[in-house]
Amino acid sequence: MRELLVTTFLSLDGVMQAPGGPDEDPSGGFGLGGWSFPYFDEEVGAEMEQLMAQPFDLLLGRRTYDIFAGFWPSAPEDETSNPLNAATKYVASRGTPELTWDTSVLLTGDVAEAVTALKETDGPQLQVHGSGDLVQTLLAAGLVDRWHLVIHPVLLGRGRRLFADGTAPVSLELVEGRVTKSGTILATYAPVGDVVVGSFG
């Protein structure tokens, strides 16, 4: 069984949209693209390099695929671009887009069923980056094995959120966590079952 890891850059109020640059994803009038840049210190860089150092394939939604495919194939070769370009890219899309990035595969039919079948194949870890709509589908189907959240000390107030209304309830266990010098929280969680409720009364 292949592990499915979701990695997402988040603001403290849960926004995941356009962390990498002003023009990355201005949809909905979002004007704060590139908000993660001031907090990308050596520790965050080392964390991402370690993530890319292990064998993996990518599982991406269409919007994130287009953003990645517009940058990484022509990026200078380094510890991040080389693994991303070498990985097989599985793309979830409601349409039939032309996939121009090398070693890209379109998932057809029901996405949850396609990913379930993909997880049962032999191969390396499946990494999801960004891909907010896809993540909601994976969460609802119980397909996420670990969450790798890079939480930045900034409030954005608007933008696409990772855990928006309609998120399937689940309890998480902290597997690993630390805070960098920039105040960025690096936290890895694993789902452990249904939400448990109680009362202090």
Describe this structure in words.
An eight-stranded mixed sheet has the order 4-3-2-5-1-6-8-7, sandwiched between helices. It is of the alpha/beta class and 201 residues long. The longest helix has 12 residues, at 42-53. It has five helices and eight strands. A hairpin with a 5-residue loop joins β7 and β8 (185-193). The model has no long low-confidence stretch (mean pLDDT 93). The chain has one domain: 3-Layer(aba) Sandwich (Dihydrofolate Reductase, subunit A).
Chain-wise SSE layout:
Elements: E1 4-11, H1 42-53, E2 56-61, H2 62-69, H3 81-86, E3 89-92, E4 104-107, H4 111-119, E5 125-129, H5 132-140, E6 146-152, E7 171-179, E8 185-193
Parallel strand pairs: 1-5, 1-6, 2-3, 2-5, 3-4
Antiparallel strand pairs: 6-8, 7-8
